[in-house]
Design a protein that fits this description.
about 725 residues; alpha/beta; Catalase HpII,  Chain A, domain 1; Hemocyanin, N-terminal domain; 4 domains; six-stranded parallel sheet; about 15% strand; globular; binds CIS-heme D hydroxychlorin gamma-spirolactone 17R, 18S
Length: about 725
């Protein structure tokens, strides 16, 4: 019997093969990145290709005897296993990634010669990795943290990496402070506690001594730090970059990613609960959306600033703690990115992918942002350690689709077998090839920038306004967002043991907003100081004059910016939202099926949750398959809850503590709830809640996202109201 007959193809292998065949966009890279071994049809072998006859027993001296050193099968297998782990990323260790493509809407040739931004017919393959920053590889997805948003464009002119975050600014202005910052936010070194959390003394100690971090702190304490999904975060290149056109003209640019599903978050209590119920919540969400064909999409946005406007604004374009308010320079949406394929192997792709802000193509260039400049060194350096040597560009996921020809040779794990005698340039032995490319032939030329300066360790006075944009962010938030931000600060600083650190932070907050500082101080049981106090001598150069290092306040032209508030995001779709349908024996089958199909028609996904797995019996005796039981499901993993009609089913849910808890949590987390036949279930789920115990009118409840007794109105109208409510995401007016 041949191998094929002995081992049937697994469905997994079939699916993958089909995907790779069908995937025309990724075809270009798949020929490079896939090893052509088809697992299901081959014999098991050693790494030397020797076929293995017994993979179950080691070689022994007698059946009960000691294992022999001679056993090359055992030794090879164990040795490889012993070396399976590589160092995790020092930051952004935990992530999830996906393949897809990017396509520009219209040629941007006016600004850039980068081909992938000038040819609207070109679909450029991308690989995108999302991440948290502080936690280890095994930490929870739902930590309060910045999210990494790193995009590798496999362009025909070479790889371009846009290595950004979901927040548009950063904590510090100069790369030299980065190791200190990361040491402070990581778990404390003596006991490695807390994991994936900034709520501890060392982080806030550092922050309270870094007034430039205050803008980023506003973002980090906002709900942006606890996203509903990677698919619902914005992305930002953070630094100002340059675009260069064919004529060598340059403009400044800030990059944005705008998610087509809107920007949405969970609430803090939910985040904490999800961390226990499903620490892979964001990974799973991304994976499942792509598996189900609900491909996440982002538009690429650019803010373009002409060269002559470099000094026009009340902030410095080179300062990475500043945004350009969209009111000053609108974001032009220039193209779309679609993620349509999950990685086949987490380690080979998501773990081994190596991003580097210095991977640019002709038409994109750097500015002198001192944080960016430091990053240009760091990323290659870190990959050398993490991926074991200088040939990490040969790892399939990192290979460009553009051909690579140079005289770099050898080193650990070299894959390329370079033929020929001469490995230098210039040469005549191999005819002078590969040769340098003229700019017209796509050769990269750095932008010629005139710099006439002193060599100096220091920073520009234009980098000293630390609070104006922190205040701009705070003032742009809705009341609910301000409350969440205040609560987050109170929580985080409440976890800080040293009173002097909390006090210093309250002092800094007074510079952002008095009410914010007062409310946080109140929660911490502290007085509000008149002005911040911190030991200046620690945060300025040893011979610096403290007077020269005082923060300044520059008058702002923009007081409030709509784009900064998530309250203004898109709320017109329920695509990919997860809806729990709670049911038990005796449920009205028609109300389930009608609601299910109405929701699914809008792109939502539903799950029937019952007291136990298997089947429930409808009022008319029909068997309905249960997707999850109350034991494994949890309200925090869903966006909304529906309780279909059926007196017996409702009565049994009313007796079920877990069902009541499910509804209670959905209510507390401001989610849409619909019930065909309330029968007191809502009240029972949250005894003592004033709003639910008052007999509110249906319309009042509907205004708070609770659709009740709608069955009387007919299932369609119920579904319509419910769909509208789910699209609202949350009802903060409860
Ligand atoms: Fe990074 N950063 N970073 N960073 N960063 C890394 O590179 C670094 C900064 C960002 O999914 C490391 O491969 C320095 C800003 C993302 O693989 C390391 C400084 C922004 C990722 C590194 C910064 C980022 C990283 C760790 C200050 C937003 C994950 C592992 C000068 C614009 C990429 C690695 C992925 C990863 C250094 C600041 C984004 C050590 C020195 C600002 C999304 O090289």
């Amino acid at each position: 019997m041949g191998v094929k007959e002995r081992v049937g193809k697994t469905s997994d292998t079939r699916v993958n093969e089909e995907k790779i065949e069908k995937d025309t966009i990724n075809e270009k890279i798949s020929s490079l990145t896939y090893h052509t071994e088809s697992a299901a049809e081959e014999f098991l072998t050693t790494n030397q290709g020797t076929r293995i006859n017994d993979n179950q027993n080691s070689l022994k001296a007698g059946e009960r005897g000691p294992t022999l050193l001679e056993d090359f099968l055992l030794r090879e297998k164990i040795t490889h296993f012993d070396h399976e782990r590589i160092p995790e990323r020092v930051v952004h260790a935990r992530g999830a990634a996906a393949h897809g493509y990017f396509q520009v809407y219209e040629s941007m040739a006016k600004y850039t010669k980068a081909k992938f931004l000038t040819d609207p017919s070109e679909k450029t393959p991308v690989f995108v990795r999302f991440s948290t920053v502080a936690g280890s590889r095994g930490s929870s997805d739902l930590a309060r943290d910045v999210r990494g948003f790193a995009v590798k464009f496999y362009t025909k002119e070479g790889n371009y990496d846009l290595v950004g975050n979901n927040m548009p600014v950063f904590f510090i202005q100069d790369a030299i402070k980065f190791p200190d910052f990361v040491h402070a936010v990581k778990p404390e070194p003596h006991n490695e506690i807390p994991q994936a959390s900034s709520a501890h003394d060392t982080f806030w100690d550092f922050i309270s001594l870094a007034p430039e971090s205050m803008h980023m702190i506003m973002w980090l304490m906002s709900d942006r730090a606890i996203p509903r999904s990677f698919r619902m975060i914005e992305g930002f290149g953070v630094h100002t970059f340059r675009l260069i056109n064919e004529d060598g003209e340059s403009v400044f640019v800030k990059f944005h990613w705008k998610p087509l599903l809107g920007v949405h978050s969970v609430v803090w209590e939910e985040a904490q609960m999800i961390s226990g119920k499903d620490p892979d919540f964001h990974r799973r969400d991304l994976w499942e959306a792509i598996e189900k064909g609900a491909f996440p999409e982002w538009e690429l946005g650019v803010q373009i600033v002409p060269e002559e406007d470099e000094h026009k604004y009340e902030f410095d374009l080179l300062d990475p703690t500043k945004i350009i308010p969209e009111e000053l320079v609108p974001v032009q949406r220039i193209g779309k990115m679609t993620l349509n394929r999950n990685p086949d192997n987490f380690f080979a792709e998501t773990e081994q992918v190596a991003f580097h802000p210095g991977n640019v193509v002709p038409g994109i260039d750097f500015t002198n942002d001192p944080l960016l400049q430091g990053r240009l060194f760091s990323y290659i350096d870190t990959q050398l350690l993490r991926l074991g040597g200088p040939n990490f560009h040969e790892i399939p996921i990192n290979r460009p689709i553009a051909p690579v020809h140079n005289n770099q040779r050898d080193g650990h794990m070299r894959q390329t077998i370079n033929r020929g005698k001469a490995s230098y340039q210039p040469d005549t032995i191999k005819g002078g090839y590969p040769i340098q490319a003229k700019a017209a032939e796509g050769g990269f030329t750095s932008y010629t920038e005139r710099i006439e300066v002193n060599k100096i360790r220091g920073k520009s006075r234009s980098f000293f306004d630390h609070f104006s944009q922190a205040a701009l962010f705070y003032n742009s938030q809705s009341d609910v967002e301000k409350k969440h931000l205040t609560d987050a600060l109170s929580f985080e600083l409440g976890k800080v043991e040293r009173v002097e650190i909390r006090q210093r932070m309250v002092g800094l907050l007074t510079q952002v907003d008095e009410t914010l500082a007062t409310n946080v101080a109140d929660a911490l049981g502290l007085p509000v100081p008149r002005q911040p106090e911190y030991p200046m001598n620690h945060i300025i150069p040893a011979d610096g004059d403290p007077k020269e290092y005082q923060p300044v306040k520059v008058k702002q032209s923009i007081k409030k910016s709509e784009a900064l508030s998530m309250a203004n995001t898109i709320k017109n779709t329920i695509k990919t939202r997860q809806i729990a349908i709670l049911a038990a024996d005796g449920v009205d089958e028609a109300s389930i099926s009608q609601m299910k199909s109405a929701l699914e028609a809008e792109g939502a996904q539903t799950a029937i949750i019952a007291p136990k797995l298997g089947y429930i019996k409808s009022a008319t005796g029909k068997e309905i398959k249960v997707d999850q039981s109350f034991l494994t499901a949890s309200s925090v993993l869903f966006d909304a809850v529906y309780v279909p009609g059926g007196a017996k089913s409702s009565a049994s849910l009313k007796e079920n503590a877990k069902a009541l808890q499910f509804i209670y949590e959905a209510y507390r987390h401001y989610k849409a709830i619909a019930m065909d036949d309330d029968s007191g279930l809502l009240k029972a789920s949250y005894p003592g809640n004033k709003m639910l115990s008052d007999t509110l009118k249906e319309t009042d409840l509907a205004a708070k996202g609770i659709i009740v007794n709608a069955h009387a109105k007919g299932a369609t109208s119920n579904a319509k109201d419910f769909i509208k409510a789910i699209a609202q995401h949350r009802f903060w007016n409860r």
